[in-house]
């Protein structure tokens, strides 16, 4: 057997790389290491700003040079960290050594011993993960999520008045409009969006078991919790004062559960649109050069929505696992979270890929108004609900003596196909007021949509 050159194992890094590459800026190993460098650098600045342990506050140029270690972090640093970790066998220690090397280069080796001072690796890691996840959600995932909602909003407005036969339990039911049905998904997705936007990103910086023990023994006079709080909040994170060696990851569980919830609503959207395509309510717009089937040249397969379904399921599997496992840590620390958190990017990557497929898919469909009208016109029996409800109102108002209107309409319509002529004759013979009779005689399946169109305005 011939030997292949090295290949990527995940399709997110291969076939689908273009769709998810922005996530790699944050949720890759390199993105995590850049964040670790940032945490180490900012901790050095906090310590020296307070003139702790004989240090002197750095001037503006020195601080800028330190922070440039983060903004200029690139391939050279990635390679150097790989070399260091090959020796240290510890990823965070490798980052500490990298920072120490850079301090020497910058002429700041006199503060080298303050690098990683009183910090456990998890002090660095929890803040780094919080920063990278926060940035990935804010800068990559949420914009794509909002883009899907915007595409749905365009379709909801475009199709707000397009009456269609609804199907409850898969059976013909009271009509609605395509725009209102799309608006339902927008409303659901926007609720979750607000929850995600308002979610917390917490961090701790309190030492080996969350007690500030090393800090206090090194300098008892300092209010270390206050310093920690200032430091963590200065990074743009919320401060968690009560932890073990690790930050408890509850904020992560909450976030991943909410993203999984969004994934499941999007999965429902994808299956509904797939079904509308299947029954012909949506036509797929042919894409130049595309092939639907390797043997059936007429086909246009709804692959955008099928791919979205699969990727949403994969994303949920990973994010649900993270949410379930990260909230448990044996006693003061175990290392199970280290492995699981390395898959955060994979969970978000499959969700991002699904969002990309849905957004593109929404731009490749159009509504078939002729078929919608034909389907409605073939199901006049759906007006049975309207007729029996009007009769009940007439009985209540004293304008009819009909007994059990529901049973009357059930006998007429259940399991049967009724024509317009059948219903007109039935209504004309009803014992109800003239105004009510006129309303029913004017009613057709395509006008029996209630307030479906104006309900779309509740999105504004």
TrEMBL record:
Domain Fumarate lyase N-terminal: 14-308
Name the UniProt record assigns to this protein: Adenylosuccinate lyase
Domain called Adenylosuccinate lyase PurB C-terminal: residue spans: 329-449
Top-level class of the enzyme under EC nomenclature: lyase
Pfam family, one: Lyase_1
Pathway(s) per entry: Purine metabolism; AMP biosynthesis via de novo pathway; AMP from IMP: step 2/2; Purine metabolism; IMP biosynthesis via de novo pathway; 5-amino-1-(5-phospho-D-ribosyl)imidazole-4-carboxamide from 5-amino-1-(5-phospho-D-ribosyl)imidazole-4-carboxylate: step 2/2
Alphabetical list of InterPro entries matching this protein: Fumarase/histidase_N (IPR024083), Fumarate_lyase_CS (IPR020557), Fumarate_lyase_fam (IPR000362), Fumarate_lyase_N (IPR022761), L-Aspartase-like (IPR008948), PurB_bact (IPR047136), PurB_C (IPR013539)
Function: Catalyzes two reactions in de novo purine nucleotide biosynthesis. Catalyzes the breakdown of 5-aminoimidazole- (N-succinylocarboxamide) ribotide (SAICAR or 2-[5-amino-1-(5-phospho-beta-D-ribosyl)imidazole-4-carboxamido]succinate) to 5-aminoimidazole-4-carboxamide ribotide (AICAR or 5-amino-1-(5-phospho-beta-D-ribosyl)imidazole-4-carboxamide) and fumarate, and of adenylosuccinate (ADS or N(6)-(1,2-dicarboxyethyl)-AMP) to adenosine monophosphate (AMP) and fumarate.
Top-level taxon in the UniProt lineage: Bacteria
Alphabetic keyword roster: Lyase, Purine biosynthesis
GO biological process: IMP biosynthetic process
One Gene Ontology molecular-function label: N6-(1,2-dicarboxyethyl)AMP AMP-lyase (fumarate-forming) activity
EC number(s) per entry: 4.3.2.2
Keyword Aminoacyl-tRNA synthetase: no
